[in-house]
Specification:
The chain has helices spanning 2-24, 26-35, 43-63, 65-70, 75-106, 115-148, 151-183, 191-211, 216-242, 250-253. The chain is mostly helical and 260 residues long. It has one domain (2-253).
Length: 260
């Protein structure tokens, strides 16, 4: 009976997390679209977030590779695969966010801007191709190691991947915190999305660690992310209370990104 109750709670949490994650990014996408720029959002934080999610997903698959490779199409397989799908949802959303960032950088290349700002826009697009290549190489390495090593070796690599994910998670929010301190406002950064993400990170910790019993390495990056996102929201509210909103010329706002 207890096991059944936990199954119900687990299903409610996992589908709630997947749905909530997908919907929570909408305010951020909408705000960037309405502003036609991504001022106030750190490119580095987005990129590190993608790497953190990628290593987390691949690492979790490899840590659970023995169970995943042996599961059949039944409830056991469902219970094994669902935690991976839940971790994939934020990765997909942050990739879409990066596409928005790059698109609105490239679409503003023709705007009459300072040469420095036009150069920044073009650099964003070039960097995006480099990051795409690196991620494809990571996936290729994942496939090769998973098909050619034994379970113990695959699991060790999975632990290393999850450790790398934690490192990216630890440093990914530092550029965004710096950017927020620097401009003293949110601009195209959605506080609603950040607040929902922060809560979602803590719920993910509960689901992944206490319900499906993943290793501590799987959930550390979510714990760090939840705390950092909450801190950024607090920073913005602090500046809103103590500083007046500063206006900028439209030509500068259209493509003046902080790329730290």
């Amino acid at each position: 009976m207890i096991e059944h109750k936990y199954s119900i709670i687990g299903n409610l949490l996992v589908w709630g997390l997947i749905t909530g994650t997908l919907l929570s990014y909408l305010p951020q996408y909408i705000k960037i679209y309405k502003n036609s720029n991504a001022r106030g959002i750190s490119e580095t934080s987005i990129v590190f977030g993608i790497y953190s999610c990628m290593f987390n997903i691949l690492g979790t698959i490899q840590e659970d590779y023995k169970n995943i490779s042996k599961c059949s199409i039944n409830k056991d397989c469902y219970d094994t695969i669902m935690p991976i799908i839940q971790l994939t949802a934020p990765g997909l959303c942050i990739v879409i966010l990066y596409i928005f960032f790059v698109y609105f950088s490239k679409s503003n290349e023709t705007t009459p801007l300072l040469q420095h700002n036009r150069h920044i826009c073009k650099s964003v697009y070039k960097r995006s191709k480099i990051h795409l290549t690196i991620n494809l190489l990571l996936i290729a390495a994942f496939v090769l190691t998973s098909n050619n090593l034994n379970y113990n070796s695959i699991q060790r690599i999975g632990k290393i991947y999850n450790l790398i994910s934690v490192v990216f998670s630890l440093i990914m929010w530092l550029p965004q915190i710096y950017t927020t301190f620097q401009i003293k406002n949110d601009y195209s950064l959605s506080l609603l999305a950040l607040s929902i993400h922060s809560i979602g990170c803590f719920i993910t910790v509960i689901y992944q660690y206490f319900i499906v019993h993943q290793s501590i390495l799987v959930i550390l990056n979510y714990l760090v992310g939840g705390l950092c996102e909450a801190f950024i929201v607090c920073i913005v509210f602090y500046f809103r209370r103590n500083y007046k909103y500063q206006t900028y010329p439209a030509a500068i706002r259209s493509c003046e990104y902080t790329t730290l």
